[in-house]
Each structure stands twice: as structure tokens, then as C-alpha cells.
Amino acid sequence: MRMSPLLALALAASATATVSxxxxxxxxxxxxxxxxxxxxxxxxxxxxxxxxxxxVGNALSCANCHTDAGNNERPGNFRxxxxxxxxxxxxxxxxxxxxDRIANCFMRSMNGMRPGTDSRVVVDMAAYISxxxxxxxxxxxxxxxxxxxxxxxxxxAGRGDVVAGAGVYRAECASCHGATGAGVxxxxxxxxxxxxxxxxxxxxxxxxxxxxxxxxxxxxNAHLDEKQAFQVxxxxxxxxxxxxxxxxxxxxxxxxQDYNAQVRSETDTVxxxxxxxxxxxMALR
Length: 285
Hints:
Layout: H1 5-15, H2 30-44, H3 50-53, H4 62-65, E1 87-89, E2 94-96, H5 98-108, H6 120-132, H7 150-155, H8 159-172, H9 174-177, H10 206-216, H11 226-236, E3 244-245, E4 267-268, H12 270-276, H13 281-284
Antiparallel strand pairs: 1-2, 3-4
């Protein structure tokens, strides 16, 4: 998305220098503090950890969606996340833990294999996310959600919105993510295509992507209005990306009790995601 050349260069430099993430302050002593730091470092740069690389199937990092490693107030942040678990998940039709939620993200946003919830990768990420919530109450009542305009926009969407979204993309996004959405390796993530998130990811839901775009993009200068955020999200999520077939993202031979979900069969595509909102991909294109 559009930004000053100086900011673009700074972001590119920071994105390519993430092998040694910045040390966190005021960590617990000993092994717990080491786990918190390691969890943070994997979120910033999954390629720096050989254990995590085995579970990642695309060119994204966690920090592409959870900016500042989730330590901010923008959409996708991790603040007040740990205290909301255990929690019921409609997608899995089960009460899941924070560790479940992290492991499931590898299958979807990272288009990879689901790690075990007791793996070092998941435990250390959970340690970091929990550390961000230190001193906060557990399972505290959540404040009422703000009015969300995007589901109604989605149900009323037409081809004109996709065309307008393409225009927003060219003006605000292509300078970083490229005309074809392929991104720039080591600097800016791919937004569609084989190296981006698959159709089972949260951001493959247009309304969720629109909320995220509104609060985060352009990076460092989020200024799109609600309609622009929705239209560019619709444009991005009508582009080709990997299908999600649940069975292909679970380890071979996994025991039923090791995947905490009642839903055991799921296939998502760009077309089926739009169909859930009453839309036709062919009509939108």
C-alpha cells in the first residue's frame, strides 16, 4: 500500500533483518523468560526457527497479520487474547484453548501442518501471548462490540465493488505488494496466490479482512475509509489462493483426541467463501 519512499525503505530493511528479534524487557527469569522471548521471535520471523519452519507452508510470517508481534491496539493484536481462553469456537464446534487456536492458525493462515499443542513452537508462542496479558483478569466480560458495517456491505456487494477495490489496490497497495499481489520476498507479504493464506484462514473472510485493513493499512498510515477498506478486501479475497482441505493439514496418523474439534471434515475455496454470503464469484469477476 502507498507510503513514502523513506518509510518503504525502512520497513523493507526491518523486514529483512528479523533473524535476531529485539530482546523484550522485564521478562520472567529463567526458562519461562526464554520461552516468552522465543515465542515472540517466532512470531516476528518464522524462518529463523527450524522447528517452526516445518509447519509453515507459505511465505507469510505471523507478524504480517499481527503487526508489532501483536503488541498494539490495532486489529489482529494479541492484547487481552490469552484471558479469553478457553473459549467456544464455532468453526471447530468445540471449546478450545489458546494452544489450540495457535496450532489451528498454522493450518490456515500459514497454509501448513498443524503442530501439536504441546510442541515447543506452540507452547512458547502461548507463553509470549500470555505474557502480554500479565496482570489482566481471566475470562472477564467483554465490552459490547462496536457496530460492524462489513457483513451488510458484503451481502450487498456487486462487481462494481470489486472494480473499485482494484482501483484502491493500485493506488494504495501495489507499490508494496506488487501489481499481481505476489509481494516482495523478505519485505512485503503476498496477498494472494500460492504463497499467501489459504481459503480457510480468517482473513479469507471478506468482512474480517476489511476490519483488519481499516485498522492497519497502509502500513504506518492507516487512512482508508470503511468503503475503501471493504472494496479492497473484496478485491483481494476474490483472487486465487490455495483451497483449504482440513485432512491435508493434519499430521498423518493423528489421534482423534489430539485434534480438539467436533468438525472433522472441511473444505473451503474462494468460491465457497463467497457463496456463504450469497455471492457468486463468477458474477463478481
